[in-house]
Amino acid sequence: MFKQQARYLVKRRLPELWAQVLVPDNMYRRQLIDQVIPSFQDILMILSVFLQVVATAVPESTDPDDVSVTVKAFLSADLPIELIELLEKVILEPSPFSDNRNLQNLLLLTAIRADKGKVVGYINKLQDYDQGEIARIATDHGLYEEALTIYKKYEQHVNAINVLVEYIVSIDRGLDYANKVNKPEVWSRLAKAQLDGLRIRDSIGTALFPHRLNLANGNCR
User: Fold this and answer.
1) Cα 97–128–63 angle (5° rounding)?
2) How big is the chain by its Cα radius of gyration, in Å?
3) C-beta separation of 31 from 9 below 8 A
4) Angle, helices 171-181/184-196, rounded to nearest 10 degrees
């Protein structure tokens, strides 16, 4: 019964129907969820109107409007954890929407706000999100290691060193990173951080390092 109801909700695309289903005092709200995600079936029998949508109706759909309206309904009902479950089904499992940039962004943003422990896993698995914007928002929410992971993954070295010295506040890790990537702009940012921290001698040595490296390689006239 709940499987058919879920399919009906997705196909009808009527926000007012979703609003009726998703009201907090609906005692059957999670029953659909429990029928598709077996691990929930014996635990949450009373609140179960969603996981059937998550695991059956939406993944079966190939119409972007079906998915769009369903996602908006979850957002309107302020159900971030259930929305994450929905997006995982649509994105992390094979579907016509697996590479959808907007849905990948939404999954990351929802996790940043509601389930921070999942963020780094999504960062490593997904490829099509807006890297700079997601990293910025992760930084704003105190997820500095997650932002650093994005910058490293996409070789945005100056942003990575900036997170290390300005937010994580680790000159030592910054030095390790500068040695690893060996980019003049990274050495320059590290030198400034050392100077700001009154490590003047280290700062001078760091600032001169790319020049000395060029001399050793015969690249300076």
Assistant:
1) 15
2) 24
3) no
4) 160
DSSP secondary structure of 29-49: TBHHHHHHSHHHHTT-SSSBS
**Quick check: 67 and 103 in contact, CB under 8 A?**
yes
Instruction: Estimate to the nearest angstrom the gap between the alpha carbon of 84 and the chain centroid.
Output: 11
Helix (H, G, I), strand (E, B) or coil at 124: helix
Alpha-helix residue ranges (DSSP H) falling in 141-183 = 144-153, 157-162, 171-181
Query: What residues are paired with 5 via a beta bridge?
Result: none
- Beta strands per DSSP E along 114-217: none
Residue range 93-122, pLDDT digits in tens = 887 888 989 889 999 999 999 999 999 999
- DSSP assignment letter at 90: I
What integer pLDDT is reported at residue 69 of this predicted model? Answer: 73
Per the CB < 8 A criterion, the answer to whether 144 and 167 are in contact is: yes
Nearest C-alpha neighbor of 87 from the set 67, 73, 69: 67
Distant-in-sequence, close-in-space partners of 204: CB < 8 Å, separation ≥ 6? 191
